[in-house]
Amino acid sequence: MTVALSATLIATTTLTVSASTASADDASVYTSASPLPSGQNGDVVKSQPSTYNGAKATRIQYLSRDNKDKQVAVSGTVLVPTTPWNGPGERPVVAYAPFTFGMGAQCAPSKTLAGEGARDLVSGFQGGFVDALLGAGFAVAQTDYLGPWVEGSGDHPYVNRLSEAHTVLDVIRAAQRLPGTGLPSNGPVGVAGYSEGGSAAAAAAELASTYAPELNVKGVYSGAPPADKAVLAKSLDGGMYAGFLGYALVGINQAYPEANLVGLANPAGAELFLQARQTCTLDAVFRFMFKQTSSLTKNGQPVSSYLTQPPFDAIIAENRIGTLKPAMPTMVQQSPTDDVIPAAVGKQMAKDWCDKGANVQWKDLASFSPFFSHALGMPTASADAAAWLRSVFNGQAGTGNCGRF
What we know:
Oligomer: single chain
Mean pLDDT: 92
Strand order of the largest sheet: 1-2-3-4-6-5-7-8-9-10
CATH architecture of the largest domain: 3-Layer(aba) Sandwich
CATH topology of the largest domain: Rossmann fold
Structural class: alpha/beta
Number of domains: 2
Largest sheet: 10 strands, mixed
CATH superfamily of the largest domain: Alpha/Beta hydrolase fold, catalytic domain
C-alpha cells in the first residue's frame, strides 16, 4: 500500500538556519530542532519549495500547541493559485483540515500532495478537496496536524479537539506570515474539512475567537464531523471501519498518556496498537475490518464500556464538539446515510450550536449510494464547501436555517 519516500529532498530554504550551515536533512520541514526555536503560535520555522499543479506550493514547519498547551512543531503546505483572484477584496486564505489519512510518517498530506509518501485512493480525495478550494481562487493552508511526520513529535493525536483546532488555526497564521506568497497578513480567512477534517474545522470554529482572535474568519465548513466520540466508540466497534476506532485509541494514548489506555490491552490489543501506528487509511480499514474491541482488552469488555468511567469520561467530555458557540457563520453537511459517522452526530452538533445562537446552515449531503456513502460523498462535499465559502467571502453567508432541520 505504500511506496518508499524519495531519499533526496527537493531544494530547501529555512527561515531559522542558514543554508550554508544546515544539511538537507536539517532543513527538511519533517526534522525538528530540540529545543524548538522561540516564537509565537503560527510562526514559520522552516520552508521548502514543493510541487502542485496550478499553484505555487511551499511546504512549511510552523509552531503550534498540543492539547496540554505545549508548543510543538507541525508540518503542512501553503498553496497559492497561479491565476489572479477575481473576487472582492484580497485573496482569502482557507485552512484545509484533511480527513483521515493515517498514523504513519509516510501518510502526511504534505507529502502525498507533492507526489511522495504513501499515495492511495484517500490521498487522491485529499487532492480533490484542495483542487476545489484552489479552483474557487482561494489560497490553501493545509495542515498535517501534529504527528510523527515531524520527527520526535510522537503519535498523531487523532480527532483531538484542542490539538487539531490549534494546528488548523495556526496554519492560517503561518500562511499569512510566509514571505513571498503575496497573501495579505490580515485578510479574510475560512476553514474547511470533512470527516476528521470536519471535526478539526468545527473545533477551530469554536476556539477561533479565543485562541486566534486576530484572524478575520468569515466562515467555517464542517463536513461529517465525528463530534461525539462516545457514540463512535459504539458505532465503529466490530464494523467495517473499526480501524478508525483503533486510530482514536492511539490518539487518546498520545494526548493523555496519564490515562494509561494501553494498560487495558491484552497482547492482541497491544499488537493492534503497534500495527495501527504504522498504517495509512486504506491499510487500516482492510487490516482491522470487523475487529471487536472486546477481543483486545484484558477483561473482555468493549472499549465503549470504559469511556463512561474515570479518567476516560472526562477525556470524552473534553473532546466533544458542540459545547461552544462559533463566532462566525458555519455550514455543517452530512449524508443521511453516512456509513462511517452516524448522521445524527453531525446534526446534533449543528443543533447544539443553534441552541447557543450561532449562525448555522445545515445541509444534507447528496449521496449516490447508501453503500460507502461517507467516502463517495467527499467530492460533493468539496464542491459544496468551495461554493459556500465563495458566497461567504462575497458577503452572502445568510442567516442559516436553525430550527428547520
